[in-house]
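seq:
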Amino acid sequence: MTKVSATERPIDEWADDVKPSFVIQGLLDSFGPGCKDTKNCTCCHREGETTPATVWCSVCDDALCDVCARAHSRISSTRHHDTTAMTSEAIIPRKRNIKCKEHKDEIIKFLCKDCKKVTCHTCCVIYHRKCESVVTLESELPALKSQLLNKKETISNKQLQMEAKVDAVKVNVVSEKDRYAKMEHDIKSFGNNARENITLMENKLLDELKEVSEKHIEQLTADLKSGEISVHMYRQQAELIDQALQSECDMDVYDMYQGSEAGDVDAVGDVDVKNRQNEDMLSRALDDLQLGEIDVQYDGMVNLEATPVSHDTSNVLNLKGDPVLQDSINANVAGEEYVVYPVDLTVLPVNGTYTVVVTDYSNNNSVKSFYTRNKQRHHSKLQLGGEPWGITRLKHNQVAVTVPTTRQIVTVEVNPDLVLLSTITTSKQYRGITSLTPSTLAAGSGRCVDILDMRGNVIKSMNAADSGKEIIHSPEFLCTTRTGNILVSDSGSKRVLCLTAEGDVVFTYPTTGHTTLRSPGGITSTSTGDILVTAYYQDTVVHLTESGQFVRNILTEDDGVSYPHGVCVDGRGRVYICNYISGEIKVFSFSNTL
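struct:
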């Protein structure tokens, strides 16, 4: 790279600033225009003669014949020059004489170590008279060559290291291809087994249906025939009664009456419709056929969760309904010495068990999980080296937790008991955190939101601005929307911000100049794009649209919300709130008012 000092100068002036390419210059010296003829004697050529050269003088940069070589060796100024016999195998060293840019006829032979510039003799006299260290370029060559050798050794070591990394990556590529091929085979195998089981169950049910239906139709046919006979008999009896009524003989009427009283008339009872025991049995068999989800798990990979055959629309969060308190979880567990302060939480299903994972920002220095199994409530506690704050869900049973006091982000596996997976050291004290992709996180610290990789390295640092002023002051809670944007709950600026992954502002709530949120806390986004944010000092949970428009306060102090911090939703249409002071987690559902 060459920096042009003054582009307004003519091209032929500043083009000399372009640094030379040693490879190209070497080719020009050897084969380009003006290269010397090394086959004939240079001295004889100056006299107009052509004599084969036998010796090369690297100092004079001349080719010499035998006669001129003997004269060359007798002259006192040249007799000590290094000469090389010119054979077919000999390599002729070429000496490139660089002319001074300012003094075109003079060769550059000196180096000013003070100015770090090579110069000619005239430049030394004119421009470097006061410099303390001006030496010949030739005398400095050993030191320069030594430095180049050291540089070459460093580059060679880096080359070896990079080659080792490349080899390791090649091996990893092969192993990963094999692993993915095995995963593909396993998925296809699981799919084939599932299809085979479904086909077997289908054939079994069809056989049972055929057997039950044949028996049922046979019974119905018999009932039909019996009914038809009864209809015929009833018709005959009705005709007999008509005849008796029309008879002129009073005894005919009396005899018919006596027959009906004795049971001769209406002797055929109602059609006996059989019960449907076999039908009910078949229906139960159909109900027992559970076409659930295929769950394939691999270590270190995201869970491949299949879409259920049918969706229960009752699990969709109905934010238009009225809140109903479903549960209250005490985050204080047995044996704890300090008061509990639940800050942030998430809910995830683990092997069919919905598990609440909450951070305890107190001297307990712990993350806790709460779940119900066999109608019994259980909990797990994981001790950390500092006070945890924010939490976000990673894979289907993993979470990431910020520990600002120790400048760490820890990853935890939820089984649903908690197991520490890794500890990531960061350069900042991050609080709010959210997962963007399987390999990137967004975390808030100070006056910025950073995009991090899973090693804690900062990929991008964002500090949004509005009207030229920074608007991120204290990003304590973050979440990711369904479109991949980042929601920031900023207690410092008392607003909610929606940012793109590039740092552009999508919207702010409230708008500039309005401070209806005195202290925004936890924030989450639903599957329909709606936004829920807690208001700490107002004891409310605010509902915003996906574009940041206020809808209503969906939870208030009257519903049991008190100093709320973290908020999240699960897949069952429930909302979880961390009551910071009381140490409780409130669980709500929403139902339509009748």
